[in-house]
Amino acid sequence: MNKDADVARMARRKDLFVELVETIASLRGENGCPWDREQTRNSVKMNLVEEAYEALDAIDRSDPKMLTQELGDLLIQVLFHSQISSEMGDFGIEDVLSAAVEKLIRRHPHVFGGEDVKDSKEVLQNWEEIKKGERGAQSVLADIPSSLPGFMRALVVQDKVGRVGFEWPDVSGALAKIREEVSELERAMAADDQLRVCAEYGDLLLIAVNLGRYLKVNPDDVLREAVQRFERRFRFVEASLKRDGKSPADATLEQMDALWNECKSREPS
């Protein structure tokens, strides 16, 4: 019974995928949607980014229904770009799927090739070596998209060099480096050297991102959460002042700080 259900589910999955591919092809077809037909790779390229971030938002919200919708929207973008590329004669969705399957098998020899690995760290090391072999003797930092947001790019760079052993053995190294960068920033500020201030501040942010790797937290996620906390507390300050007929411009820093701490004390620890 379970085997029959699995076979039926697989067939349904294939049918739905084909239906979605054909739906997108119809939208781009002669009798399709005027807007969809006008689009190019460049005109919709940022939609990929937007849909990816909306999927991340659904994950952050722990909202399965929302995530279902957003992953569907992200899949539509993949298929839309594949359809455009097929019309241009470059490649089609079959090529995208074939390349993905081949890559996964090639980069998982411990699953598909009988190779033994000790742990997930060795898996990542092997992954980087395989990638390096695929593109020739290039840097492990090759092919990192320059369009990645700053924090994400910093994390990707540090993950990649960490996989080949260029990292401190534990969190103490990152903490010591943060203290060192703070001191260097203070010296640059004391010297009133704006170029050095910018450089040292950048180094401090970079090491702060790296610290997140050791703490097992994503710096982009926790920064968003910190901004949300800041916004929530400041709105409390505004609302509290408004009840007294004031605005932040009418209050002293000490008054606003007291309200800020009041809001903070009410939050669950």
Descriptive report:
The chain contains twelve helices and no strands. 6% of the residues are buried. Among the domains are: 105 residues, Helix Hairpins, CATH 1.10.287.1080; 46 residues. With 269 residues, it is mainly α. Helix 1 packs across helix 4 and helix 11 packs across helix 12. The longest helix has 27 residues.
Unreliable stretches covering 5 or more consecutive residues: none
Series of H and E elements: HHHHHHHHHHHH
From the N-terminal CA to the C-terminal CA, the straight-line distance is 49 Å
Q: The CATH topology of the domain at 2-106, please?
A: Helix Hairpins
Could you estimate the helical fraction of the residues in percent? over 70%
Number of strands: 0
Radius of gyration: 25 Å
Tally the helices: what do you get?
Answer: 12
Q: Name the CATH homologous superfamily of the domain at 2-106.
A: MazG-like
Features:
mainly alpha; 269 residues; 76% helix; 12 helices; Helix Hairpins
Please describe the topology of this protein.
Elements: H1 2-28, H2 34-38, H3 41-60, H4 64-88, H5 93-106, H6 109-112, H7 120-134, H8 150-163, H9 171-190, H10 194-215, H11 219-243, H12 253-266
In short:
It is built from twelve helices and no strands. With 269 residues, it is mainly α. The mean pLDDT is 92.
